[in-house]
Every structure is written in structure tokens, then in C-alpha cells.
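Box S2. Input/output pair 1.
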Amino acid sequence: MPVSDLPVEESLIRGESVVVIPGVATDLECRDLVKLCSQEASQYWEKRAAFGLPAEQLVRMPCMSAGVRTQLAGEDYQTLLPLEADEIAETVLKRAMTFIEEDFPRLKRKLFGAGSKTICDMYKDGELEFSTREPAVNVYAPDGDFPAHKDHKSITVLIPLSSNDDFIGGGTGFWPQGSEIAWRPSMVLRPEPGTAMLFCGQVQHSGIPIESGERVVFVASFSPHSIEALKYTGTRGRKARRLPRE
């Protein structure tokens, strides 16, 4: 699995790399989010069991604003992030946006416009469009997975929150462009908690099932409204994990 440092931004924009940036969420933020979201997921599972509903191995908790957007779109969600977790997730998301702005200025100009407005300002002013029910925290139980898919947004920020000691299996699987998803992913990443994985909207990826324990991750995929119709072909100890070619 080759590691590429240059040109990081170009390979990221083209969907040829996943960029890994450690320390986007602090250890305390990770622990608090895991605790709060794990408790909320347990309550959700208990309610389903009380009503005799089938078990679900993945609970996706949108942040408050994403929950509102989901309802306005006439769609539903399982449960929302608890208020305290929502505030932490908001802080982490804005920090990730700032990292993108500072570490990838060319990407910012190409995918979010060359104006003086920052990505955080675009977010504050409602000028970003997110994937359905995102930003969100996903809680995986045993056998819980997220099928292979593309986000079709400018950028995805995916941050594991759980320690790798908290579960067996799992991770995020990636496929090179043009490959068949029937095969196993070409690359599986399991970075340390708080590490952001950045990749563009044309990268095929999935949440690998865990065998035991519990895995908690934060995810936000977003684009500026003005270029939503486009087809996207897309430093702080960062590494670009180039997706293997077939």
C-alpha cells in the first residue's frame, strides 16, 4: 500500500488517495462522544426490543441541524445526537473544515470556490449541502456494517472515535475507481481515534462489519450548494494513502 506525499491535493481531488490527518478530534472529545452516543444507541436498541421490533446493528445519529433537514425532506431517522454530543460534534466538524482550508488551499479553491469566504463561514451561512442525515455519528454493533457506496459530495470527513481495542474487525474499506465492489476492498484503514480520513465523493468505500464490541465513528460529507450538480472527480503529519490500481 504505497504512501504518497506529492501531489497530495491533486490525488485527493481525483479520488486516487485517502488523506489521513491525526488529532482532528482530541482524546477527550472522542471519549465523550463514544460514551454519550453509546448510551443513546443502547436506549434506542432497548426501545426496539420492548416493542418487539427486529434488532438493528447500526444506529446512525444525525446532529440536530441534520435531523431538521431530514424531517423537512420528508424522511426519517433513528435517533438524534444527544445535545452535549451535538455540541462536541459541531466543534470537531468546524476544526476539520479549518484543517481542510489551511492544509489544502488548492482543494478549497477548486471545490468550494476561490472567494474569501471560509468553509466554516459557508457552513454557518447554510451554503453547504450534506449527505442525508449528516453530519452524524454511527454506532456499529456486532455484524453492523455500511454497504459500499459513493458519497457524491466534494469531500467526506470520517473520524473514528472508538479505540481499536473496543472492537474486533471493522474499519473502513476502500476500492480504486472502476473496480468491482463484489471483491474485497483493496485497502482497509483503522486509524487511531480522532484521526480524520479525507476523500472525495467518487471514492467507493464501506463500513466493514465488526465481529464483537462496538465501533463509533463521526462522518460528514458535504459540498457547496452552487456546484452540487457537478460530477466530482473528485501539513499536520498527514499521509496520502494512494488507492491501489487494479
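Box S3. Input/output pair 2.
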Amino acid sequence: QWYQRRVRVKKTPAAPAYNAAKSSKKTSNPLIEKRSKNFSIGGDIQPKRDLRRFVRWPKYVRLQRQKKTLYQRLKVPPSVNQFTQTLDKQTATNLFKLLKKYKPETAAEKKDRLKSMADSGKTEAGKKPTVVKFGLNHVTALVEKKKAQLVIIAHDVDPIELVVWMPALCRKMNIPYCIVKGKARLGQVVHKKTAAVLAVTSVKAEDKNALNNLVSSVTTNYNERFDEIRRTWGGGK
């Protein structure tokens, strides 16, 4: 014939590569029946879910969360916003190391001291110990008399009106001040639950260098930046 007949050759597919995962797959036992769980009423126990979204939180938790949201959304005046600018971690660590050396005596230590004085027959108290001063009225009086060398203010005092004026007073009296995180952390220094402010009036000779370093750092970050801080608004995001 004038045309050549074309013969079609059927191509067989290539053998698939060896798959270890498929070959190791266990075949189900036909004797064991698969039972899917029924989570309807009266059925199987419900799986554990994250229910924090639906928890009725205590009132203080709700209040602090609402307060945080309001501080983000509303325009916060500079006098309140300055309490968000806290001391950096390294300087705060050095500060609390120094404060730890000048903790006031506990009630038990005072009791033992008075007992030993009574036993020995002493009537004079002796030299005043060098300790950290606390209490809002006490610290305010020390600042006004220019006896405080360094004032430490907590950032989370509630109501904030208790300490909102303290940075302005410290600057007016030319006393170094700083704002640190945690009224509870300040409270630990003076054996209380919380403390709004602390003041360092004097230190021993071996700690004067450490105090001077802290004072110079704090003065640069707070006292000298006071004009900038009082113009910086917060919130409004």
C-alpha cells in the first residue's frame, strides 16, 4: 500500500520509587471495629479547649486590663506618661544591689536589739544606722530639707496622684530621682508589701563610688531631660 501503517506501542509506566513510609504502614485489623467518637449530649467526654476567652475574670484583673487599654487609646498627659519611662534593667539591677545593703531592720530584729539592750542595762540607743528611708510623707520632708541624695519612685502607684508631683519637686530641689518598675519590688527592700517611694540619705564609704555612678546616670536620664519629658504625651495609638 502507498501509506505505511503506524503501529502504536503501549508504554508501561515506570516502577514507583520505594517509599519506606507506605511500606511500613500497618494494615488495620479487620477484627477490631473502628468507633468514631460522638460528642453530642450524653456522648463522649468533650476534648479540652482553651476557655480563657470565656472566663469571668476577677474584678481587679478586668480593671487593670481596661486601664491598660485606655492608656493605649486615649491621649495621656505628660505628667502621667512620664511613669512609663522606667530605668533600664542594668542600672536598676545595680540600684537594687545597693539598696539591699541598706535594708531597715525587721520587727524581729528590733525586738532582739531592744531585748539585748534591756539585758545589758543600756539606755542609749547609740549611733543611728544608715538605712533606706521610706514612706511618702517622710521622703517628701527629706526632699524639702535637701537631705535625700537619691529618690526612687515606683511606676505603678495607684492612684497615680499620690506621686505624680514628686518628679517636679525633686527637680525643683535639685535632687536626683528615678522611676523604677514595681512598687512591690521597692516594698521588698523595706519589708513591706509595697512602697511608693524610697530615699537614700547616706551610704558607707565603700559604696560612695557606686552611688555616684547611679546618681550621674539618673541625672542624665531624668533631671536633665525634664523639659523633654514634660512635653511628651502618651497613648493615642
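Caption for Box S3: The CA atoms of residues 115 and 121 lie 10 Å apart. Residues 208-223 form the longest helix (16 residues).
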